[in-house]
Automatic annotation (TrEMBL):
SMART domains listed in its UniProt record: SAF
Protein name per Swiss-Prot or TrEMBL: Galactonate dehydratase
Organism name: Candidimonas nitroreducens
PANTHER family noted in UniProt: ALTRONATE DEHYDRATASE, ALTRONATE/GALACTARATE DEHYDRATASE
Location of the SAF domain: 35-104
Molecular function via GO: lyase activity
InterPro entries named among the record's database cross-references: GD_AH_C (IPR048332), GD_AH_second (IPR007392), SAF (IPR013974), SAF_UxaA/GarD (IPR044144), UxaA_altronate/galactarate_dh (IPR052172)
Pfam families (alphabetical): GD_AH_C, GD_AH_second, SAF
Biological process per Gene Ontology, one example term: D-galacturonate catabolic process
Keywords: Lyase
Family: Belongs to the UxaA family.
Amino acid sequence: METKTVEPKPLNIPVASAPGAAALRNPFIRLDPNDNIVVARVDVPAGTFVHSVGVTTLHRVPAGHKIAVRGLKKGEPILKHNTTIGFAGENIEAGSWVHSHNIEFGNLVKDYRHGLDYRPTEFLPFEQRARFQGIVRSDGSVATRNYVGVIAVSQRAAAVVRKICAAFGADKMQQYPQVDGVAPYTYTLGADERSAEEAIGVLQRTLAGYARHVNHAGVLLVAYGEEHLGIESLLQNEALTPSETLRTLVIRDAGGISAAVAQGVQAVENLLATANQVRRESVSAEHIVVALQCGGSDGFSGLSANPALGRAMELLIRNGGTAVLSETSEIFGVEQTLTARARTPDIGRKLVRRIEWWLDYNRGRDTQINGQVSPGNNAGGLANVLEKSLGGVKKGGNAPLMQVYEYAEPIKEHGLVFMDTPGYDPVAATGQIAGGANLVCFTTGRGSCFGSLPAPTIKLASNTPMFVRMEADMDINCGPVIDGEMDIEEMGQQIFARILSHASGVATKSESLGVGSNEFVPWPVGVMR
């Protein structure tokens, strides 16, 4: 049978600039000897002979995209990292651009191997562990930041929360040099929440997680006063007790908006006086809990930023710390790589049950877990959710999976853990922070302006051109891996060093820009997929 060559529709992708010398000498990366595709480091014109694999490109190949290194028959698995990311949708000639136009999602047969590949982490002795300058709370927990939080118990309290926080601008905060700020947490749910018990539990668990968060020296809870799920319900259901560091305010009881704002400002000033008394001190890296996120992914994310971050997480875990993977719909198709490393078979099965919940939740809808990726992901070189999942799961490195948590559930295990969340970054990060993450590492290939409170976000660029274009927003450039100037091990060491620095109080780019106050987005279960 003759192979079929289809001229794919060009994508509107800017030409990459200033590639490294190694990238020009070898414009494609082969990730595994068994792979039948290679990935372009730079934009490659049609007609380019690729010496490393002995084929000539038949089409222009954008940076981050793939070509076939040999002829592929229709239905044959497409292998990247020696893992199936889909199946040839037609006969594909060697040198052809391989992307969503000729890759079918297909059905995979997965071998979950629950716990069969588990290997315990070899921890460093305590005296050899890395250290950072943290804030030790009275209960022994350790913070990376020192905020006072003002939390709306429902949307009806949002305006008052914003007005209270607006009273504490830069000039006012000069009186409290040890405090990082007064953080508002508002959202659009909860005023008359009478939805399913699961949705109610998720919302209240999220609010309680922020109220207890180690990066908050004190918190003010604000409610209107007639919510179905008000302050009393939250306190009772989540075992929260008002104290000197957990204050409450009911707008209706205060006498209206103006009176409530005045009382709220006074309450925050009292909290600030106590919060300002903290000092940083040397502590073990075991107290760092990193939420792992990726957004605006491209074909390089799974080759540079994600595996380099994974190596940094392996280092953190050896030092006793914790890494939190999430975005359940975006590990679909490669979840077996985690279940095989699970500490126990039950932990592996718990992850599979969450995958099954998502499949049922999305049944009959055109959602990402059914194969699609966002237009930006697609333009960046990702053909489907399997390919994105393969790269995304690498953020956790190769550490064993120690536990699986539901959304916003308190994280108690050290090591690599997984939290069930949607794939939407603000919602996912909100759940991880509610669970106790005190830092966020966010990889991106297309660019992201994401930030978060009270746990700061460190942003990692997958490629040098994007880093240069958005340097004011990016903290770390992982592009040297793609440029052939650094390997994953070296990049991982650099990321780990930066994590220790930012955990010690050095501001991230998003913090310096004041980004993060709008990214508190509890999961509206039943509405958002």
